[in-house]
Amino acid sequence: MRIVLLLSAWLLSLGAVAAPNDVASLDRSTWPEQLSNPTLFDVASRAEILMFARVLLDTDAMDEIALKQYLGLRTVNMAAIDTLRARLWQRLLSNYNFAQRSCDQDASFCYLVENMATLREEAGRFQLDDNSYYIKWAEPSRIFHTQYRDELLRKAALFPQTSSEIERFGDYERNGDDMNDRMFLLTFDSGANVVPDHTPWLTEYLRKSNMSGTFFVLGKDIQTRLADRSVNSLQTLYSGQCVGVQGWEFRSHSHWQDWQDSVRRSVELVKGKLPENYVPLFRPPQGQRRGDAQSFFRNQGLQVALWDIDPQDSNSRLKPEQSAQRALTLMLLWRHGVINFNAKQDAVKTAMPWLITQTAQSGIGWEDCQDAFR
Fold first, then answer.
1. What is the annotated signal peptide range for this record (predicted)?
2. Alpha carbon distances (Å) from 169 to 79, 150, 289, 314, 360
């Protein structure tokens, strides 16, 4: 017990520079290289993977008592936390194996990682010398990954009482885990606020960039738009894009008595008015949904569309450029996945173009929205 408490105290001291509820963001200017080719993307990716592995390793020995104290929670779901940690380690190993394929072109952050044991060993001794070319990145990155690790642990600790994107309830729910290396999907939530709606700007930007995204709309918003605009204008707005539903209203679908009607009404409206754009996907607002809904979604021919890269562009504590830099860091860490922007936040007009520009020569790909979640 004494060892566990000492470890907990040590971890708390490590995180003293940032409160547990701080939102992780990393100033990418601390990284000295542009992602101007696929090899340099891999270098940055290996660095972020190793740093996250290092801070994840710090929590592996923490038991239920230590985690309660560290996370500031009265109860924690240890089964969900253990499942999360195991999944994170597997993803890190897989991603590092992909990232080290270019080690013959640039050996920075390349170590002999052959299995989980050697990954843990390298993570345990991962540290940069003071004269390292990357030293200005090291401490900001450690802080970022500590904060991000704590975000994930806290969500797992509260799952499923507070449902979120941290875990799936079944194979009818999808996130970016199954996507190929270097492939990413842009998605856009409707958000909680009514105005402004940047959908017209976003869809035009994507079309000009020869890209597509999946827009998860509220049935109420579509109904309001159709009250003073034609169906043709709605179809023009979403031309070349995909449209899923987020329910009739932006509210939790985990304890709402009429959640099934919310989903059905939205699907009926969107499918009827946007048949060329509609995709059978439901994005739960804030990731909150019921764990016993599999039969309902299967009967409706729907999949639940989650995400694994959240720019937090709805969070008032982050500036738009911080949201973009957070998203890029997570892209380097996870190497593929579903990015979750908010179409009704001003930040998206800065964050998304910055992200696309920064990765334009990095060798990544943007998934066509019609091909995703199939």
1. 1-18
2. 14, 22, 10, 25, 35
